[in-house]
Task: inverse folding
């Protein structure tokens, strides 16, 4: 036998052995699946028959499915038929309803906001209104989910609300004709200054790309020569919309994102297929540690092509792709099928869900194992931990007093009261509370429960306990009491000490009563440290250009913007 024949024979025998091994391996795997499904079915039958209390089959099985999927990752979920409508709302941004956010607050069902131009707002429903019943159904003991279902319904159907309103003696009935509600991906578009435009991207549902195109086009028509693109807290959404949005700012034909998973036939590289909208206008993208998934694709793509300067915080670090698969009885499975890779070649997935510690905990991708990649211009970027900003702006920590005012809804309630007593205010960008008005708010808080413990007080309490345990309390008793009195005195002045941040949030809340969520956004333009930092970068062409160059040239520009 010739060497060639021997080689061919060896390859054939090796291939046959490989096929045989794979067949055996697949056969064993299928047997394991069938075996464990049979165990699950017989176990369920025995529990259903003999368990001491009645069990709800659907609830019990869903608990088992949820626990099983939880062991994989948080994004692989079972969607039963009853939840399909909510899932469609998340992916399409559409539902039939009144266009309002209603929440449980201090035991009451309160309108938090009404979308401008939608049925609730047109019918006169106001933030702060308390809903007593919906179509005759009393809601005081209903959950947020139950209330949402009562408010949603077919377009053109009528829902009757009985509400109480601050400043009115008796409840009033408000009839609202439901409509098709389309939650906007771009909730705000406007000018910060004569040359700087600004828009927010809140989601990636259907037509997000078209909305961003319209927003940028509108801003340029209004004179924008620079753009602030706010993608903070955006949880992501449809992959193709992330591709569409990226395509607006990078040249046709460039790679945008690649997906790679176990089913190799599904692996794909998505390219910019269309002519871009604008590849030159300076862009500052604001990110936060809650910017995830599709929002990380967009920010990462524009960073990899040196197309925008990123300002803010490192993003969440979700580099996973999900697909939905149909199941029986109109249910669905949302399953993680791949990881995605942005143009530099990096995957920004931070948490490794495939390897858990013995106690079940998960670890983040360690900095020591992160790999360096290069942007188109040669800047160094890293994988495994989200998308890092070019200009870091630390998240502001609010004071304890401010946190209490927010948690107990005192800012919200005072804004409701203010709206009933003032028919109008200046434009949101110009609106400022006077010193007299702020003191009225301080007076309003008298008698309210605003007790709280500062970190220093907690530390002092721990210290007191420790010295008591060690029998040294009498030695330092006077000093500890003096410190406690001093802290109590300081707390009494917190409404004045932290007046700037309290006043800022109160102004935003009041502005939203007159100009809706757009008013809240505009009222914060001059106080938001991220927007201030983004505008500063855009207004300094030399620094902007330096930030988009490799390390060394950009070192002096890539410094923390700090906080205001």
Result:
């Amino acid at each position: 036998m010739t060497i060639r024949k021997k080689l061919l024979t060896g390859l054939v025998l090796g291939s046959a052995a490989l096929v045989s091994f794979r067949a055996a391996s697949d056969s064993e795997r299928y047997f394991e699946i069938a075996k464990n499904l049979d165990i699950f079915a017989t176990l369920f039958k025995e529990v259903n028959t003999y368990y001491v209390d009645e069990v709800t089959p659907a609830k019990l099985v869903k608990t088992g499915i949820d626990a099983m999927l939880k062991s994989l990752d948080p994004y692989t979920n079972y969607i039963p038929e009853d939840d399909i409508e909510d899932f469609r709302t998340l992916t399409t941004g559409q539902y039939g309803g009144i266009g309002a956010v209603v929440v449980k607050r201090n035991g009451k069902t309160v309108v938090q906001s009404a979308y401008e131009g939608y049925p609730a707002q047109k019918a006169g429903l106001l933030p702060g209104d308390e809903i007593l019943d919906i179509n005759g159904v009393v809601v005081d003991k209903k959950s947020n989910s139950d209330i949402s279902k009562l408010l949603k319904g077919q377009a053109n159907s009528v829902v009757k609300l009985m509400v109480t309103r601050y400043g009115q003696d008796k409840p009033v009935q408000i009839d609202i004709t439901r409509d098709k509600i389309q939650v906007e991906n771009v909730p705000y578009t406007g000018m910060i200054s004569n040359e700087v435009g600004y828009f927010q991207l809140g989601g990636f549902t259907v037509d997000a790309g078209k909305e961003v195109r319209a927003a940028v086009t509108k801003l340029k028509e209004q004179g924008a020569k620079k753009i602030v693109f706010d993608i903070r807290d955006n949880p992501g959404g449809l992959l193709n919309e992330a591709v569409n949005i990226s395509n607006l700012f990078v040249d046709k034909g460039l790679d945008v994102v690649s997906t790679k998973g176990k089913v190799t036939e599904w692996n794909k590289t998505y390219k910019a297929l269309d002519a871009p909208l604008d590849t030159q206008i300076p862009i500052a993208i604001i990110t936060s540690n809650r910017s995830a998934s599709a929002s990380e694709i967009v920010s990462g793509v524009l960073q990899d092509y040196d197309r925008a300067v990123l300002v803010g915080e490192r993003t969440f670090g979700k580099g996973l792709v999900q697909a939905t698969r149909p199941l029986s009885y109109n249910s669905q499975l949302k399953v993680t099928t791949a990881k995605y890779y942005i143009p530099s070649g990096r995957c920004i997935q931070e948490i490794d869900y495939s390897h858990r510690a013995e106690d079940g905990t998960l670890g983040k991708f360690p900095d020591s194992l992160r790999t360096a990649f290069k942007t188109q211009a040669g800047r160094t970027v890293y994988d495994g931990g989200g998308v890092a900003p070019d200009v870091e702006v630390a998240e502001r920590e609010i004071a304890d007093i401010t946190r209490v005012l927010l948690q107990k809804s005192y800012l919200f309630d005072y804004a409701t009261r203010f709206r009933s007593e003032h028919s109008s205010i200046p434009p949101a960008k110009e609106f400022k509370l006077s010193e007299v008005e702020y003191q009225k708010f301080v007076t309003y808080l008298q008698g309210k429960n605003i007790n709280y413990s500062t970190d220093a007080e907690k530390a002092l309490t721990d210290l007191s306990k420790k010295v008591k345990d060690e029998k040294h309390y009498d030695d330092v008793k006077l000093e500890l009491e003096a410190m406690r009195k001093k802290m109590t005195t300081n707390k009494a002045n917190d409404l004045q000490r932290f007046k700037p941040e309290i006043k800022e949030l109160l102004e935003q809340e009041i502005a939203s009563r007159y100009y809706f969520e757009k008013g809240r956004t505009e009222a914060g333009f001059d106080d938001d440290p991220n927007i201030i930092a983004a505008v500063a970068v855009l207004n300094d062409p030399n620094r902007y250009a330096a930030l988009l160059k490799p390390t060394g040239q950009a070192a002096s520009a890539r410094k923390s913007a700090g906080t205001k």
